Target: YqcC family protein
Amino acid sequence: MLAEKEQQTLVLLTCLEKQLKAGNLWQRKPPSREALASELPFCYDTLRFEQWLQFIFIPKMEFIISNKHVLPTKIALTPIAEQAFNSRIILSKSIINTLSELENLLSV
Model:
């Protein structure tokens, strides 16, 4: 049985996935191994932010929860999301709001 915070995190991750799909920001084919292996924050040199969310962030958070590891207590995704989606702000508003909710949940 998952704790409340883990359950809420999974709900927000599912919501984030649905929003990415609704915005046509979800891709079927994963990026190359090289692109996923970037050591820069958010893999910004090899991935778009939505790719990082899909192929790194969401799976990593699901792994943490399923393996009963401690969730991070401080994340800051909203600023990078706002920058990454600045030309698509109407489309991305729901994604940014979900990321903000996730930040708030994990900061408690």
Observations:
- DSSP finds five helices and no strands in the chain.
